[in-house]
């Protein structure tokens, strides 16, 4: 936890917080963050030692100020933090991911110093580790196109670069009023932008709530016209676009007090500021109306450290705890990815009946998924299209292929256990090496993994290894293994599409064992049958007589990760266990072309496709496979989540049990395993 949050929590520990705004009582997330920070909400009148909580400069804030003054108690000023949600909370009621809890004032009000200004003015801000975190976080925000509000597509086109960006704000906005600005001030700013940039195109960016028709801004249509009503070099631009893309094309930025001015600083601009926002006065802006008491000169990393790491109280909805900025970025990344992919709706084909509810959970948060089997009808629906990868045909061209992810569940899909990770691939699918997949591209792009990504991946792998996690997390029996050079050979389902599409000349478990024994006559060979095969649900059984001749141990119903911990090598066709062995430091030999083969990290008996020429390290491969490629879903909060949350659920076992219908159908499926064609 950051120092200011610790200080705030210490100050709030057991403190009664009296409120006179209904939002404090009706907004569950607001109550939870305050509760986690140690404040106890109360109604009535405070006594000495209590606090009064007010929401910024809301219409009800005057009540709280009056009570605090009359009763001689302190104020706690509460506002949304600078990374909030997909949409503005005022309209869409989405809960925030953090709050600004300020005992001194409000960050946007320069009439008196706030806790944030105090940090910027007097905190050393010289911690190299914290400034490194700041630089990493700035890079991630830019790369992921994350902002305070995020209802835009990063691919949405912005005007051709070379414009001067003038930022509009909402009429009646508290930060505008605190800077004593009005329409006249905004018009003056527009004149300055024209005079200081002769001949340049001027782009006026409207506020998201203005473009949605909820609240007006300060600029009008006529501000972009000449005296004859014709369009000149000024353009009102209201499209929802990434602020980072917009700032990249700007040659100069003009603002009164918009948060976009802060992001302009982080993008490398020195914005011209006509108000007195928190980020003005520290040597990073050109101030038309400077705050005299702000004399310190800061770096961008120092400004970010104070405003984004030290000042806010960040909240993790998955653990219901106060957290660090990095966890919020992970969470917002998962949320925005889901919104950007799902907001236009999906049609789904080739989905078994039991999968439909989990798919609605994953992809139907913004628009319900429509299950349409006819590819032509799905195409004319105008929605995005997905098809279960194993059911895709040429008639599904253009549809994204769907498959289970690599940290799937605690239990088999064949036993109808819902997944917590899924992958959507718009090119191919990870187990088909006959054509490039999105995963291939992500792995190739991970050759020069940024330090923050490498650290995150390393931490994720550490948790997987420490907690013995795998795709299905079945556990199982442990075996006393013979001594010697141990080679683990994982059995596979022989009609699995990864074998049909990704195996080489060796396509059966028996042939795999024979080839492994022939190449390693003196090794200790441990064979682990696939759990679906052992359960009698899928083909791939090897006669006991053959097993006796080719193996030193058959690890029936075993814990695969416990076996990996004891084996030095894995020999496989295309099993995911090969990837799980790689991340645990074992040597892997492949007889097929699984997604992790062909990148220089495995010993391959088949020639890799030409597009697998990149040479990532293990962390690069793992980042692509476990972080970039899958989507994750938390069954507890029923929200998109980062992979770390799924790991935590798998470790703790805090996962809702399958419904009665699924459990019953799973048992019937086991009884009638011979007739799998009836439900597959």
Characterize the structure shown.
There is one protein chain. The protein is α/β, with parallel strands linked by helices. It is 35% helix and 16% strand. Strand 12 and strand 13 form a beta hairpin. Helix 7 crosses helix 13 (300-310), helix 7 (128-144) packs parallel to helix 14 and helix 18 crosses helix 25 (618-628). The longest helix has 18 residues, at 325-342. The radius of gyration is 29 Å and the shape is elongated. The two termini are 49 Å apart. The model is unreliable at 662-680 (pLDDT under 50).
Compile the SSE list and pairings:
Elements lengths: L2 H10 L2 E5 L3 H4 L1 H9 L2 E4 L8 E5 L5 H11 L2 E7 L8 H4 L5 E5 L12 H8 L5 H17 L18 E5 L6 H5 L4 H14 L4 E5 L2 H4 L22 E4 L5 H6 L1 E6 L3 H8 L5 E2 L12 E2 L12 H11 L2 E4 L4 E3 L1 H18 L3 E4 L6 H8 L6 E2 L3 H6 L3 E5 L11 E5 L16 E5 L12 H7 L6 H16 L19 E5 L6 H6 L6 H11 L4 E5 L2 H4 L9 H7 L2 E2 L5 H7 L2 E4 L4 H6 L4 E4 L12 E2 L13 H11 L1 E5 L4 E3 L1 H10 L7 H12 L9
Helix pairs in contact: 7-13, 7-14, 17-25, 18-25
